[in-house]
Amino acid sequence: MIKKWFNQSIFYVIISLFFSLLLFLVAKATTYNASGTQLSRVTETYSHTIKSVPIDIKYDTNKYFISGYSYEAEVYLTSTNRIKLDSEINEDTRHFKVVADLSNVKPGTTNAKLKVVGLPRDMNAAVNPKNIAINIGKKASKTFKVKSTISPDQVADGYKVDSVDIGVSEVTVTSNESTLEQIDHVEAIMPSDKVLSSDFNGTVNLQAVAADGTILASIVDPAKTQIKVSVKKLTKEVPINLSVTGVLSDKLSNINYKLSQETVIVSGTQEELDATDSVEGTVDITGVSKDISKTVSLSASNVTIVPQTVTVKLTTTKK
Question: Which InterPro entries match (predicted)?
Fold first, then answer.
């Protein structure tokens, strides 16, 4: 009896040890997996490239005028915090800036280093380009006349500029002293996508230009103005060439004709007008036995004729 009880006790001890070991291994594996998951989350890195980030240039705006530089840069962001990264990607919630500090730089051309400032913790950034060239000059202002020259490319075929009315005659231009000396006038610039086939009335930008039309870096005040451009069709006055067809009545000896007008106005491109010396009309005298007036249509290649018809008065002479 004692032996049997002893054997059963050993059996239960072995079973208990087995399950204890099994529970230990399971707990160890769970702890390891949890630790591995936590480590993976800590070391995971997110990244994003932001294009066209404005460059904030620090300089004495009262004393100097800067030009010739890039206005935007590209920033490559990395972070282990996805929420922070998304916040910096969004322009409305962004904290960082790209800055070029010219506080202690003298006039001339300088190679300014770009820095990313205001970046939250747990984030890194790289900016491209790392440096930008900037021209620095002493600030100056001067008054210039405003002109407007409409490019032939901005006038539709068959039209020409009749008149231009600009809202302002003079403006103040601010730039560096060297650039200011190169400015010839201020130009009222028509929108590049505008081709005139009718009158234009709108607001346009003002830009300082050299005598050869080169746009120069400057601040124009005011920066915009109202402009009215009137255009009209290219026209030409040409004679009517009237042809008489048909059979003269045997009761008549002759028929004379007189046009209600001798010339008409034609419109078209300059090339088409140059090729047009007259317009054609034909009157048929078949069956005419007495004085009569007829309407005759006029024609010519590739041009518009005004008026398109004329009246021909036929005067008969009997035998």
Answer: c-di-AMP_regulator (IPR053154), YbbR (IPR012505)
| This prediction's pTM | 0.66
Over residues 182-190, mean pLDDT: 95
Q: Delimit the domains of the chain by residue range.
A: 46-138, 148-232, 235-318
Angstrom distance (rounded) from CA 16 to CA 66: 84
Residue whose tokens read 């409409």: 150
Query: Are 122 and 79 in contact, with CB atoms under 8 Å apart?
Result: yes
| Residue 104, both tokens | 């202690």
List pLDDT tens digits, range 242-281.
999 999 999 999 999 999 999 999 999 999 999 999 999 9
| CA-wise closest residue to 69 among 7, 17, 129, 3 | 129
What is the fold, at CATH topology level, of the domain defined by 148-232? Answer: RNA Polymerase Alpha Subunit; Chain A, domain 2 (2.170.120)
CB of 244 within 8 A of CB of 285?
A: yes
Instruction: Respond yes or no on whether the N-terminal peptide bond of residue 107 is cis (omega within 30° of 0).
Output: no
Type of residue at 132:
I
219-252 pLDDT, tens digit per residue, is: 999 999 999 999 999 999 999 999 999 999 999 9
Q: Using alpha carbons, select from 68, 70, 56 the residue that is nearest to residue 107.
A: 68
**Residue 5: predicted pLDDT:** 40
